[in-house]
Structure formats: structure tokens, C-alpha cells
Amino acid sequence: MQHGLKSFFAPRGVAIIGASATPNKLSYGILRNMTLYGYQGQIAPVNPKADQILGLKCYPDITSVPDPLDLAVIVLPAPAIPATLEACGQRGIRAVIIISGGFKEVGEQGAALERQILEIASRYQMRLIGPNCVGTLDLYSGLNTTFIQGVPERGGIGFISQSGAVGGGVVDYIRDKFIGFANFASLGNEADITETDVIEYLSEEEHTRVIAVYVEMIRDGQRFMQAARRVTPQKPIVLLKAGRTGAGARAVSSHTGSLAGSHAAYRAAFQQSGVIEAQTVSDLFDISMALAHQPLPQGNRVAIITNAGGPAALLSDSLAENGLQIADLEEHTRSALRGRLNPAAQVANPIDMLGGAEPPEYEFALQQALADPNVDAAVVILVPQALVNPLEVAEKIIHVSGSRQKPVLTCFMGEWSVQQARQRLHSSGIPMYVFPEIPGRVLGAMLQYARWRQQSEFEAAQFNEFDRAAAAQILGQAGGQEALGEAQTRPLFEAYGIPLVAGQAAHSPEEAAEAARRLGFPVALKIISPDILHKSDFGGIRLNLNDPQEVRTAYQEMMESIANRLPQARLEGVLVERMADKGQEVIIGMRRDPNFGPLIMFGLGGVYVELFGDVSFRVAPLTRREALDMIHQTHAGKLLSGFRGEEPYDLQAVVDVILRLSQLALDFPQIAEMEINPLRVFRQGALALDGRIILS
Amino acid sequence: MQHGLKSFFAPRGVAIIGASATPNKLSYGILRNMTLYGYQGQIAPVNPKADQILGLKCYPDITSVPDPLDLAVIVLPAPAIPATLEACGQRGIRAVIIISGGFKEVGEQGAALERQILEIASRYQMRLIGPNCVGTLDLYSGLNTTFIQGVPERGGIGFISQSGAVGGGVVDYIRDKFIGFANFASLGNEADITETDVIEYLSEEEHTRVIAVYVEMIRDGQRFMQAARRVTPQKPIVLLKAGRTGAGARAVSSHTGSLAGSHAAYRAAFQQSGVIEAQTVSDLFDISMALAHQPLPQGNRVAIITNAGGPAALLSDSLAENGLQIADLEEHTRSALRGRLNPAAQVANPIDMLGGAEPPEYEFALQQALADPNVDAAVVILVPQALVNPLEVAEKIIHVSGSRQKPVLTCFMGEWSVQQARQRLHSSGIPMYVFPEIPGRVLGAMLQYARWRQQSEFEAAQFNEFDRAAAAQILGQAGGQEALGEAQTRPLFEAYGIPLVAGQAAHSPEEAAEAARRLGFPVALKIISPDILHKSDFGGIRLNLNDPQEVRTAYQEMMESIANRLPQARLEGVLVERMADKGQEVIIGMRRDPNFGPLIMFGLGGVYVELFGDVSFRVAPLTRREALDMIHQTHAGKLLSGFRGEEPYDLQAVVDVILRLSQLALDFPQIAEMEINPLRVFRQGALALDGRIILS
Q: Which chain A residues are Cβ-neighbours of B344 within 8 angstroms?
């Protein structure tokens, strides 16, 4: 684990290089923020033109700043930064935050400057945050190297943002809502330190209970996944990714100057490493807030305690849409509620105590609900009523949920009259949401994460019986080719143990007939030609040939007809294949993602993959369980698992092919794309009927 | 149009019956609210035990209240209400709001009381709002018969809520956000006045620019659709429906004591009548706020003006996910921007002016974007920066967007430092959202509504060439049956002009062979038996019979085999059908919804309808265009329209069958369910191959 980042959050001394004495400068704002939130270390403004700023002694250069000094924050024009960085290195500083922009994000010249500072940093074994960022803050050490106005309350959320603006906007939004942060880091261009580095630091940081992340792009996807797989069994990661759509990805690219990559790969990576993907900025903090202080639900059965039916109905919809159920209360619970609540109250779940419900009734109902063994989580709804004090209700909720055995979320529907209640609830670690749909979404995310935690450890599937050398030889021979035809993909797949329909090449009618006899009838013929990729378009496939004479005739007809239609094509013979039995056809594919590497695809075969887009993705390497998950994530999974009472197909055979194809992709980076289309799946076993490989 | 409801919003005088002098009573709260917001009419508390309350003269009973008096608000225990209502009737009051609960929502006894007050009201031609509601308010007349603390700003949203709690929560939430309301009505049990009545009133009410509705159930679905179809071409209706899921519907039922019905019917009804369906409470007001004051977009091309790239990327995603595009700016626009903005700014769309952007730059960029002919709408993003004053940016936006040719929405990402800006923007009719995902969703809804407005008028498809009498006779004969077999559905479908595969009943091997000769080979045989619904399960279907002898043999074998397996089944003969040509199979069905009547279903045939749930719904009657829409809403629509360059199938033939089936359902309410499964569709024409009808 990476501990070297502590200096960015809790250094013993900080120099602000370029600190201005002019109050409307950003660097002045940073210096002021350094003084405002209880930071106990040395604060050293560096500015040759001032003696002191904000009552702090000013230094002419970094060399003259005395110890202790762990961190330098640079706010200077970009061209001045290399020399300053050199000076920092000489001074022995190993942690630097570069706030200034003017680097990669402004084009090639800036990119060159960015390479230069990275080279300097590496020479001095310095770690860099930025450039082009808004700095870091730590609510426990009091460090604040940002110029954002105000800070959040102290709490358990560690927030990492690639966008300083998103970070600033969020702080502005939550600062009066008592949503507690442990720390915040804005990473800008990530010239050195990336989101993954900070995730690793925060995973060990004591005050951080949940890691919230906003990213526009993850450069080293494999490293991110490895880190996340280590962290998420202990600490949740909630992440919002910009650039889910083509338009969003283009916006990210034009803004960051980097390629965003496909969201299918991101989504797969998040699923495979237990990262909770947020859909919106508010979603990110709605979920993080709950994970920071509430226990995880042990199941999906929720009790609703409310003083109004409408919001409870909206919450019920949201729970159902997020995989949760309305708990069936025990008769014991219902009779206890009946004995105490308004006689007209609903004691079935939702427990609707009606508009007149007072704080003691809330207390009693929540107590009963949490004690019910059929209840895994509770949501308390309060709609402001003229005669009920929300703060008192909040106190009762805090009191009852003190033991923290089961998660308790609340919806106090309003703003004006529930401000104080929110402060009390949030300070006590109980999330309060304004609208009733939110707790449903949040509990859904908590449940998903709880299930992830229960999963066994990650262990990538391993095969021994594949012939790497044979595969290397075939690919070596394919040297300059762009694509491999079936005659080449067959032995390649065979080398990795992927089951193929029985087949054999033949170069004359007689050879074909002989091959057919050996394979067994009926057979199919497929043309072998480096110039024909889509064989069926040119009459290059003949099916269901039943005897040697049919095979001979078909061979001759095929050769003549193609020679007529494509006189320039090189015809090297045919592939004779035994016709496979009936079965369910699926597709297994791979394309190489720029950030994550081999991205494996599974989907239903035929016209339906295109019509319904019924596909799922995973990043290789993957476990047997992940391979099975990716099948079940599609509708095709239902079809294979014994739809409408049919006997199920051989899922394990499909899993096997997925894993072997993944291994092949991992072993040979020169393979850009692969596809087995179709893989025909039987009640026992599966056979690849056709394959296609594109080299990079 | 219904104008009788004016007394509920702008009466000349109001009596509060049961007004208490005790400040912690709800009825006191109502009286106080009546005095707080500028209401100019008479306010008459009725309470025999007080002389005056809040300085207002108190009357011992309703009879003694002088004119003018248009509205009575009753806040008394339920049992006292019938007598009071009688007195109101005698006094000549024609508009009454009953705040009190204790009616249908508490069980059968309350339901009886509710029937009683409805009877009294109808005797006096009185209109009722409630019971069990929180009353009405009108920001222009100053009327406020609720006990909610505070009111929203004046504005253009008319809000109708079946739940008083949701209404109260919303007011509490928005009151300091400067989201303007014209009026609000909470309808409670809807004993008399329903959401549809108030929609009709608000459609003509001058201050109401958009009608926002929260409903838990719509009892008279057909009337609602008719009203909405009249209103939405002029005024938008945005609606949130609780009970979308099974769990939500059960919560609604237990809370309202009524059946919620299926959400498929609601969703279809909203689509067919131009109602914008909101997904959450915040969605309801996010959308309504924009529709109240902004013009509709003429197309889907959006310009983004921002001072930060991250939020612009998030907005880009949201735009793409909601059917909008990032506008391609003209070179003219880009060069103008280049000339004026920071040299490092992005002048392609999103227009990213970078963190230092000042109010004049916002003004210039927005001006340029709105002037670009490639732009249909603009979203302005501001992330608070230490040195930029959000209020000044707001002023510039207000100034530039004054002409209101194209919609302008804003996202000021924060809370603490953007409060004043929000007030200014909202007071000027420019929506400000906190998070960048929201304007994408809102513009999507605006675009959908704009397209609805451009549609031609509603005109249900009409057929003349169907034989209602013949159909009536068949159904009459089917009297006590629960289900109709194919022998009965065939003539019924024929009577309504639904094309059927050629077929004929036969009662002996010879008759069957003779029928086959007449129909043409190959043919299929299907057993006719009132005791066998699923023919294929018992060997009751034989396909592809090619000559008379095959037909005779198949007939005999079928009869013997079924007689052996089901000795008690009555076997009435077989249906001989010509085998239909190959084609694409679809399903057309109907079931009767308790609130909306005939709900028509279209979907892809075979295993895929169940696997993918690829179906769409519409409420009958429907237009040709709606029938076509429902096909295109499914993936099957793509398959029929000429997928992958294939020749398209005959969509109009499918439309025709949908409309004829709808007509049959409308004409004969005793048909509970119908299904044509499959309808085989050809390049020209379509044929029903099998049908099933269930009677109620």
C-alpha cells in the first residue's frame, strides 16, 4: 500500500509558492484557506515581493523556508514552474501540488511542458498532484490548499475529483448540509498522481470511511481494477464517470485532451471490482453519505415508517425498482403497532401513522420495525405537519437507531422546516433525503455492495492445457496480415482448447469427399481464400451435403462460380466440416480497450444481438464466476438456463470458451479483435462454428 | 370547459366552518393562512363558541354568514359533516372543501359516510373538494385554505395533488427557491371533484402556464385522456404517478382503499394524450419550472456555455441520454468566440470559457450561441469561482435571453454561493438547476412535448366495413362460456375484417380432404373441441399435409390418439387451414384495464416476447398513427421495417389488424381478453393464424 501521499493531506509544513498579497488573487485565497481551518503545521508563503501576508512571514524563495516542510503548493504561471520545481527538489521537498493550468489541457506546447516537469519530479523522486487542479483539503489535519470558499463538515467521505470544478461545486453545494467529508483531492491533469494512487492512500487513511470518486478517464485500467479489488472488500468506492455516451466522451476528450475509451469497459471494470457506479453527482453523495455511517443491509426487506401515504407509495416504487422488497412484518410487530398507534393507522408495511403522528409514535414504530426479524433496513418518512416538530422526530430516530445493527435512512420531505432536523441527523450519521425516491436508490446500492462483500475472493481462472508455443507460431506466420481466416483461426483456437466443429482442409473434389467420409455426413464446405472475408456473400458456403458425390459436385460448383464472380481471388481450397447438431447459438468476442485491455463480449447469436443489443462485457482476466455472471446478465442467459421448463444448455462449456478466449487475448497483445460467431451450445458441450481475428 | 371551479380558487367570500380559536389547531392555521396572503374577499370563521378569532367576526352557524359567500371550508369531525353540508346547501353555497378525514380511507363505515355527503352535495348541485385533503391555494387571489406554513412565490405552475402530504412537502421544499406557483389544489379522496376536473379548470385559468399533477390513481381513464388531449395542445401537463411497480401499487391501494390498475395502461394513456410523465417529485418540478416560462425548443441541437469542462461532460451525457445533440456551431460563431474569449478556451461546443470567465464573457458567448442557426437551445453552466460573482452572471443571462426565442436553462453548481443568483434567475423565468444532469433531462421532456404539439389532431381510426350484428350473434351464442375456441374466434375476427388464413371446419376424414382440396395444399389440421385450449399439448395440430390421403390419415390418427388420451373431451371435428407462407410472426392482444378500458398490446411473436418483454401498449380507441407508433416502440418494429437492408414487411397490414381488434374490444365490453398469436406478417398483407378470446 502506498503511504507516501500523507504529505498531501497532513504535512508538517507547507509552502505556498506564488502566494499573493492581493485579496482577489487565487493564491491569496489559498493562503487564507490555509489559515482558517485549524492547520497546526508551518504555513510559509513564498513571494519575493512581500514581507508578510495575512500576518505570516513571507520568504523570497523556497530555499529559505525553514523546516518542517513536507509540501509545496505552486501557483505560478506555467513557464515559471520547471525552475521552481527544480528548486523544490533541491530543497528536499518530495510532495508538490501544482495548481496552475497551461499544460496538457491547452495543447502540444503545454504537453511538452508537462513532460518536462514530470521528468524533473522523477529525478528528485518527488510526487506531484496536478497540474491544473484546485488542490487538496483534509478536515482532520485542517490542511486546505484550495481556493474554494468554505469547507464541508468533518465526516467520513474521502472525495477524489479529476475535475476541480466538480469538486468546488460539490463543496459549495454541501457545505451547509452537514454532509461530512474526511478529505478532498482535486487531481487535474494527473501528470503523476492518479485517482488510483489516492484511492490506495485513502483505503488506509483512518478517517475515510467511503471513497467517492469523480473521473473523466482512467488511464491504467488494469491497475485501477487491481487496486479496487483490494480496497472494496474493506472500504466502499462510489464512482461517477463522465463520458458514458458518445457526446459525453467527446466533451471529455476536448476538455482533457485524452481519449475517454468505451463505457462498456468502464462499466465492466466497476462491476468486476465492486465499485458502485453513481449515475449523477447527487447520486454520488446520496450513496456515499449512507455508506459512510450506516451498516450494510443483510437482506433486501425494508420497513417504511411514515406519516403520509403518498411519499410511502413513491418510496415503494423506488424500492421495487432497485431490487428491494417491502418487508412482511410479523404479526407480533403489527399487533404491537396496533396497540399504540392511531386506530386508523396502517400497521401493515408501509406503517402509515397518519398526519398526526408525534415523535413518540415515530420512536415506537421504528423500534418495533428494527426489532422485527423480517426487516433488514428501515426508512423513516416525515412530511412536515403544522403541529409536529421535525427536530424532535429526528432526536427519536437518532436514539432508536443508536445500536446500528440495521441501516436506517430518512426522508424529511421539505427544506424550510426541516433544516435543523437535517443538521442533527447528519451529525449523527443518519442520512436525510428530501425526496422519497432517493432512499430506494441508496438502499439498492448498499445492497449491491453488501452482496459484493459476501463474494469470495478474486481468483482469475487458470488453464494449463493450452499450447502457447503453437499459437505464437501461427501468429508469427500471420505477420503482415490484417485479418486471419478460418483456416488460421482454427488451429489457433485449437491450441487454446476451444472446441471446434470437426473439420479438415481439402484441395480437390476427391480430397473433400475423402475428408467428408472421415468426418461423417452430413458436412458443410467453406471456401478458403485470403481475399474473401464474408464467405456467404459469394457462394462460399454449402451446407448439408449428404454423400461423397454431393461433396464432389459442390466443390466443383463452388470453385467455378467464385472464380467467375471474383476472378482475382486466390482460392486455396475448401474447409470440410461436419454439420453440427442443433443447439442455441451465441457469440463470444474480444476487442482491446485502450485503457483496460482485452474486453470480452458475450451475446445471443443471430439477428437478435443486433436487434436487442443483448450483450454483456467483462475485462480479462476474469474468474469463472464473472464469466457465468456475464452470461446471466443477458437475456440469452435465460434462454440457455432452461427457459420455459426446457432442459438447460451447457453453461459451463460457454464459461470455458469465454475463459480460454480471454487467456488467448491476454497472451497475445497483437490480437486486436476476435470473435467466435457462432458458438453453438448443446445440452452437453459447445462448438465454435466460425471464427474471425483481426490483428493490430 | 368547466368553469364552475373558480369558487375554489377565487371566491368572493369564504366561511371556515369549525375555525378554532386555539393556535395549535389545524383550523386555526387555515384561518390564519386566509388572512396572510392578501385575500380580498370576506373571511368568515364559523364557531358558535367564539365571538371573534384573529380579529375576524365569528358566526355561530353558516346560515348567519352574510353575502358575499361562495365557498365553505369544513374542518369538523366526520360524523358532524352531513348536517353541516345540508346547512351549506340551504344557505346556497355551491362550493365546499372538506378538510376532515374519516371517510373512505378508514374503511367501510367511512365509505358509507362519504356516499352520504356525496348524495347531499348532488341534491344541492354543490361541488366538493375532499374529504381528507389539505385544501387549495391561489397565489393571485390570495386564497389559502390550507394549513401549510408558508407559500411559494407567484408564478406559472398550477399544482394538483391527490396527496395533501406530497403537496405540503413540495411547498415546504420550494418556498425559498423562488419556483413560482399560480395555484395548488389537494384533492384527498376525490369524492366529487377529480384531478380531471381541476385540469380542465386550470387549462382555462389565466395565470396557470403549466399543470403539474401528482396522482395515485385515475378512476375514469377515458375521461382523463379526452381532457388531456384537449388541454395539452395548448398547455403542458406534467404528471407523476405513484404505484408504477407492484409494491408501489399495493402501497397506493392500502393508503387510498382503491385499486391502482396497471402502469402499462397509465403509461400508454400519457403517451397518447401528450402528458409528460415525471419520474420523481423533483423531476416533476424541474420540468414544470422550465415549461412555465421558457419557449419550446424547435429542434434537438443544444449549445453548452460553461466555465468548467467536467460539468459540461456530465451534461453532454445527459443530453445524449435524453435524445438531444451537441449543436455543431457555425464557423462564424466559433471565430467570433475565438476573438473574444480566453485564448485557451474551447470554442467548439461545449464552449468552455475556463475558470476565469467573467460575466461579460458569459453574455457574449450566450448571445453568439443563441444567434447560431444550428442551435435550438442553450444551457449555461457556472461553477462558483472565488473571483466570479454568480449574481452578475445571472443578470447577463437574463439580459441576453430576454427575447425568448430559444429556451435557455442554467446549471449553477452549488448552493451556498448561488442563492441570490437563483432568486434572480427564477424571478425572471430562467430555471436554475444545481446539478448538470438535470437540464438534459428537462430539455428531453421539453423536446418530447414540442413534438407532441406538432402532431396532427387526434382522430380515432374509423371502419365501416365490419359486421357488428354477426359478431353480436356469435358472442350472444357464446353466453355462458369462459373462453372461445378457434372455431368461434374465426367468424368473429372475420366479422371485423381481420384477415385469417384460409380455413374451413370438417367433421370427417373425407370432408377434411375435400376442404383441403378446395383450400389448396399444403394444409394444417387443428382439433375443434371446447375442452382443449392448448391444442398442441395433446397432438391436436398436424402441419404440412400435402395430399388428400395424408389429410385423411392425419384426421383419423388425431381423433384416435386424442380420444385415447382425453376420453372425456368432446371432439367436434377439425379445422382445415391452408399453410401460410413464411413471414414474421407478431402478437396482437387486448386486456381490459379497470380504469382505462381496452388496453391493446403489440409484440414480437415466439419465445422472444417472453424473453425480452418486447411489447408495447396503447389504450383504445387509437389513431392509425398511434398504432404505427406502438409498432415502432418495440424492437419488433425494427425487424418489420426492413432490418439489415431487408425488404420491409407490410406495417400497414399490422396497423389495420390492431385497429380492427381495438374496434372489436370497444364494441363488446363482455370480451375481457383477446389475442391473435401469431399474426404472420408478409411483404404484402398479414394473416391471423390463431386466436383466443376470454369473456368476462
A: 101-102, 105-106
Residue A13 has pLDDT above 90, yes or no: yes
| Same domain as B190, residue B78 | yes
Tell if the CB–CB gap between B321 and A355 is shorter than 8 Å: no
Q: What is the mean pLDDT of residues B354-381?
A: 96
Best of B108, B186, B254, B353 to substitute, by most chain A Cβ atoms within 10 angstroms, is: B254
Chain A residues with CB inside 8 Å of B26's CB?
386-387
Residue A606 has pLDDT above 80, yes or no: no
For A368-411, the pLDDT digits (tens) are: 999 999 999 999 999 998 788 999 999 999 999 987 799 999 99
Residues of chain B found within 8 Å of residue A644, distances taken between Cβ atoms: 607, 610
**A62 and A168 co-located in one domain:** yes
Average pLDDT, chain A: 92
List of residues 6+ apart from A88 with CB closer than 8 A: A17, A62, A72, A74, A96, A124, A126
pLDDT tens digit sequence for B612-657? 888 999 999 999 999 999 999 998 899 899 887 889 999 999 999 9
User: Whole-angstrom Cα distance, residue B503 to residue B492?
Assistant: 14
Q: How far is residue B664 CA from its own chain's centroid?
A: 25
Whether the Cβ atoms of residue B362 and residue B396 lie closer than 8 Å to each other: yes
- Interface contact flag, A312 B101, Cβ < 8 Å: no
pLDDT at B2: 37
One domain, residues A18 and A65: yes
CATH number at residue A570: 3.30.1490.20
User: Do residues A520 and A663 share a domain?
Assistant: no
Are B311 and B446 contained in the same domain? yes
Model ipTM?
Answer: 0.92
**What's the whole-number average pLDDT of chain B?**
92
Whether B474 maps to a domain, the answer reads no
pLDDT band at A1 (very low <50, low <70, confident <90, very high): very low
Interface test with A, best of B36, B172, B277, B584 (most A CBs within 10 A): B172
Average pLDDT over residues A657-665: 95
Among candidates A172, A310, A325 on the partner chain, residue whose Cβ is nearest the Cβ of B417: A172
B chain contacts of residue A169, beta-carbon cutoff 8 Å: 308, 311, 383-384, 413-414
Q: Do B248 and A314 touch (CB under 8 A)?
A: yes
Same-domain status, B512 and B400: no
Distance CA(A575)–CA(A595), nearest Å, equals 38
**Please, what is the Cα angle at B597 between B593 and B599, to 5 degrees?**
65
Q: Indicate if A566 and A596 belong to the same structural domain.
A: no
Given B290, B315, B342, which residue is the final one in a domain?
Answer: B290
Which of B578, B594, B613 delimits the end of a domain? B578
Same domain, B566 and B608: no
We report the CATH number of the domain holding residue B188 as 3.40.50.261
Rounded to an integer, what distance in angstroms lies between the CA atom of residue A618 and that of residue A494?
23
**Mean pLDDT on A126-139:** 96
Residue A469 lies in a domain: no
* Residue A164 within a domain: yes
Domain-embedded: residue B495: no
Nearest to A251 among B101, B312, B612 (CB): B312
CB-based contact A251 B350, cutoff 8 Å: yes
Query: Across the A/B interface, how many CB contacts are shorter than 8 Å?
Result: 290
Q: Do A309 and B176 touch (CB under 8 A)?
A: no
Work out whether strand B71-74 and strand B13-17 pair parallel, antiparallel, or are unpaired.
parallel
Mutate to test the interface with A, among B256, B329, B416 (most CBs of A within 10 A): B416
Closest in A24, A242, A416 to B150, CB measured: A416
Question: Per DSSP, which regions of B347-458 are E strands?
Answer: 351-352, 377-382, 408-412, 432-433
Structural domain boundaries, residue A548: 502-578
DSSP-derived 3-state class of residue A131? coil
Contact B256 A174 (CB under 8 A): no
Considering its fold, how many domains does chain A have in total? 4
Closest CA to B134 of B119, B110, B151, B117: B151
- Residue B463 confidence (pLDDT) above 80: no
3-state secondary structure of B214: strand
